[in-house]
Amino acid sequence: MQETRTQLLTPQFLEQLERLSLLTRRPMRGWAAGERRSRRPGHSVEFLDYRAYGIGDDLRYVDWNIFARTDRMHVKLFIDDEDLCLHLLVDASASMNWGAPAKLHWAAQLAAALGFIGLTSHERVGVAVLRERVADGWPPVRGRSQITPLLDFLTKLEGVGNTDLNQSLAGYAERARGPGLVVLISDLLDPAGYETGLRALLERRFDVHVIHVLSPDELEPELDGDVRLIDHETGEALELSVDRAALDDYKQRLQQFLERAETFCKTHEVGYHRLTTDVPMHAVCGMLRGRLLE
Question: Considering the entire predicted model, what is its pTM?
C-alpha cells in the first residue's frame, strides 16, 4: 500500500482532528510525567473538589476547617497528571487487502487520524503491525515532530501473510513497557480466534478498543452462479454454486460471527466498534465521539 501522506489525511481533515482528544475509561499511570489532565483524584497541587469522608480515606486530606464549621468530615480531591500511551495495533494480514477501498487502506487512515490526535494532544503514540506475530512496529513517541514519520510509516503498510491474532496480541501485551489505550483495527478473520489475545491485553490493564472493519461486499456479496473463491491468506480455492440458499446460509454465519465478537467485547468491557470501509473518515471520527474520542 504505497501512497502519499495526503492520501491518508488531507490538510482539511487535519484541521478537524486538531479539535479532538482521546478518551479513556480508566486512569492511566505510565512511566513518564504526562501532560494529560485527569479527573481522577490524585495527589498533585491543583485542587479539584471535596467529597464526604469515607472509611479508609487518608486523614491527611481531610479539610479540618470544614470539620470545625460543620462537624462533618470532607476530604480534598486534586487533579493528577496522567501519562497516556496510545497503542495502535493494525492487522496487516492478506485478508485486509480485500475490498474497494481495501480494508488495510481504511485501517491505515484511521490509525493515522488517531495517531495525529494523540501526538497533537501530547500523548505517546506507538504502532504495531500484526500478522502471524508482531511483524513490524513504530515505538511509542511523543510530540508534533513525530507526525510526519508516523504518516510515512503508515503509507508503507502492505497486507501479506496469515493472521495469528492470539499470538501477536499476547506477544505485544507481554513486551509492552506499560499499559495504555489499545486500539486494535482488524477484520478479526482468524480461524483460531482473537479472544486469548484480547484477554492477555486486559490482564496487563490495557484499556482495549476493537475497531472491527468490514468491507460492504462482505456484508452483501454480489455473487451468483458457479464461482471460484480463493482465500487471500492461504491461497486455498473453493468452487461452489451460489444460489439464494447459499447466500442466506452465508449471511446467517456472518451474523453469528459478528454477534460473537460484539458479545465477547461487551462481556469483557472491551470497546467494540463495527465499521465499514464506505464510511468517510470524518464521519468515523464523529461516530467515535463519546466512546473513544472527545
Answer: 0.80
